[in-house]
Design goal:
Layout lengths: L2 H43 L8 H68 L1
């Protein structure tokens, strides 16, 4: 009976770790969205007409393109990490449910064994 609570604590600790990592990933994704919004705001402020064109505009566009590519790579990596964290969380939840079911069955057996012992003694 010592193993059941220990495995339950382990499953709970793993689930808490998964949830913590999921929160960290969500915070990173939120930060990336904020960065995209900042880039969009900067692009909206950039002159698009003939007065602001030329080499300066081409250089700015190349710089923005590079930043956007880096952002896309970063977001793809974060998405993969988020999927892994969610899969790990789901596995921990399933393990916890299995442990709780096992513990419930053991509790049921103990209760009936105690009743049988008590009725045999009395």
């Amino acid at each position: 009976t010592e193993e059941e609570p220990r495995s339950r604590r382990t499953a709970k600790a793993r689930m808490e770790e998964c949830l913590k990592r999921a929160d960290e990933v969500d915070a990173k994704i939120l930060k990336l969205h904020e960065t995209v919004n900042e880039i969009n705001a900067l692009m909206a402020e950039t002159p698009q007409g003939a007065e602001g064109g030329g080499e300066a505009l081409a250089e700015y566009q190349a710089d923005m393109l590079e930043k956007l590519r880096a952002l896309r790579i970063s977001m793809d990596g974060e998405g993969a990490q988020a999927q892994a964290v969610k899969a790990e969380r789901d596995a921990a939840v399933a393990l916890s449910a299995t442990a709780e079911e096992r513990m419930s069955k053991q509790q049921f057996r103990i209760t009936h064994l105690l009743r049988a012992i008590e009725s045999g003694v009395g």
